[in-house]
Specification:
The chain contains ten helices and six strands; from the N terminus they run E-H-E-E-H-E-H-H-H-H-H-E-E-H-H-H. By secondary structure, the chain is α+β, with helices and mostly antiparallel strands. The strands form two sheets. The protein has a four-stranded antiparallel beta sheet with strand order 3-2-1-4. A two-stranded antiparallel ribbon has the order 5-6. Bound molecules: iron/sulfur cluster. The site of iron/sulfur cluster has 7 residues, from loops. The site of iron/sulfur cluster (SF4) has 7 residues, from loops. Keywords: 4Fe-4S, Iron, Iron-sulfur, Metal-binding.
C-alpha cells in the first residue's frame, strides 16, 4: 500500500511458511485474515506466487438498493438485542464457554473435552484484559475490527505492551479456534502467550489450527 501510495489496495499473500512449502501454510490478507486450511499458502509458494494485489473501483450493484439499505439499517439497529450481540462484543472467543459447558472444548490433545482453566482464555477475559483500549475502557471502539461493511465487528484487535509476550495490534487477535488449539488443546492458560502465537502465525503465514494441533 505504501509502495503504490493507495491505502485502498488489498493484498492476498503468503509469508515465509508458504515460500518454504510448510504443508499448513496459509494465505493471509489484511495481515489478520487467514485462509488457513489445506495448505493453500504452500501451493502459492510452490508456484513462486508471492501475492495477489487488487484495487476495486466499481461499486457493487443491488437489485433493490432501497430495500437492501432498509434491511442493513434494521440489522444495525437491532444488533444489540439479537442472538449475535455476544459475538459482536466478545468475538468468536465467546464460544470457549459454550464448548466447555457441552464438553467439546478440545483439551490436552483432545484427550479431554473440558479445560479447568477455560475462563483464563475466554472471550470475556480477552475483552477485559488484552483487547486494544481495555485499560481505558475503550475496547468497544479500539479493540474490535470488521470485515467490509459488516455491522457485527466480531474481529479482535489485541495490544499487549508489557510483560513477556508483547503483541502488535496490526496482527489482530485470536479467534476461538486459535484460543482452543494453542490454549486448551496444549494445556496453556496464558492468554498473552496465545495472542503472541497468533501474531507469529499471521506474520509467517501459518494456519493457527494446524500449528496448535500439531504442537499438542
Ligand atoms: S463478516 Fe467478518 S466481522 Fe462480520 S460477522 Fe463475519 S467474520 Fe465477523
Amino acid at each position: 500500500k505504501q509502495e503504490l501510495g493507495d491505502d485502498k489496495i488489498e493484498v492476498l499473500q503468503v509469508g515465509p511458511a508458504g515460500e518454504k512449502g510448510v504443508r499448513f501454510a496459509a494465505i493471509i490478507n489484511m495481515s489478520t485474515r487467514a485462509n488457513g486450511r489445506t495448505g493453500m499458502g504452500a501451493v502459492m509458494g510452490s508456484k513462486n506466487l508471492k501475492a495477489v494485489v487488487v484495487r476495486g473501483k466499481a461499486r457493487p450493484t443491488a437489485a433493490d438498493k432501497a430495500r437492501l439499505n432498509q434491511i442493513a439499517k434494521w440489522g444495525a439497529d437491532n444488533l444489540s438485542k439479537s442472538d449475535i450481540a455476544g459475538l459482536s462484543k466478545y468475538g468468536t472467543a465467546e464460544t470457549i464457554g459454550a464448548n466447555q459447558s457441552t464438553g467439546t472444548l478440545p483439551t490436552y490433545n483432545y484427550n479431554r473435552g473440558v479445560f479447568d482453566k477455560w475462563e483464563a482464555i475466554d472471550g470475556t477475559t480477552m475483552y477485559d484484559t488484552v483487547l486494544k483500549g481495555a485499560a481505558e475502557g475503550k475496547q468497544d471502539r479500539e479493540g474490535h475490527d470488521t470485515c467490509y461493511a459488516c455491522t457485527v465487528h466480531c474481529k479482535r484487535v489485541v495490544e499487549i505492551s508489557d510483560g513477556k509476550y508483547k503483541v502488535d495490534p496490526h496482527y489482530g487477535g485470536p479467534e476461538y479456534e486459535t484460543l482452543a488449539t494453542f490454549g486448551s488443546y496444549c494445556g496453556v492458560d496464558d492468554l498473552a502467550a496465545i495472542c503472541k502465537a497468533n501474531q507469529i502465525c499471521n506474520m509467517y503465514g501459518i494456519d493457527t489450527i494446524s500449528c496448535g494441533a500439531t504442537i499438542a
